[in-house]
Fold this sequence. Notes:
Elements: E1 6-11, E2 14-21, H1 26-43, E3 64-69, E4 72-83, E5 86-93, H2 102-116, E6 121-124, H3 131-139, E7 166-169, H4 175-186, H5 190-201, E8 206-213, E9 216-225, E10 230-237, H6 246-253
Parallel strand pairs: 5-6
Antiparallel strand pairs: 1-2, 2-3, 3-4, 4-5, 7-8, 8-9, 9-10
Helix pairs in contact: 4-5
Amino acid sequence: MSYNKRKGFRAGELLVKITSHTYVDEVLAKEIRRLENKIKEYEGMTSEMYIADNLNFDASLPWVFTIHDEEELISVVTAFIPSKKEIELMGITHPGHRRKRYFSILEKRVYETWDKHSIPSLLYVLNEDSQSGKTVAAKREAVYQYTEYQMEYAADDLEKGTCNLEILRAEENDLEILAEIQERAFGLPREDARTFISLALNKSNHHLFIGYLNNAPVGMGAAAVSEEATSIYGVCVLPEHQGFGYGGADGSSC
């Protein structure tokens, strides 16, 4: 449910409302998508926030933070915290309401979680087409870490699998297998990997798969299904089996 800690503050002559959420309902989801569409038109960006599910290591943590000007959503920040190792932060602000420190105000809400749980790393997720995002990162003296790429499968691609992996649907009793794969492939602490996987296994709209080579688990993948899209995540392969196309097979199975 929503974490209904609300606070109003004055910016000029306007009273805006800040809200922290542990759950994104249908109304808020539509508001966020409308705001994203305005940003896309303004900056030409294509990426979207992941708001389908709370997959943070502590489900009670607020992970979506919003500012409304009367009834209009004008700024939102999301925090993806699947482990105690890192927070991934992403935020957007309406083009007509920038330079009013709204992002900074919501960013401080994420900092509170960062400090409280002594999480060592804060990662800013930027769209390569967002000049405003790059400006924020520069002001924070953030250092580039890595690039993520968006991939899309066409129907023909799903029929081209040629590797000899056996892909099986994961069940609850596969928790330790999945946690070990994530630990070795992503470098996650085992307990954090176990917590994240357990959350996903217990969600009815999440489907996890394990790739077996000669009856031994070598990789995994997962898919989250919502009304608007199916998101593939967590695709990884054990280091000694990388470079043979197994990740693509896991992804296409999802």
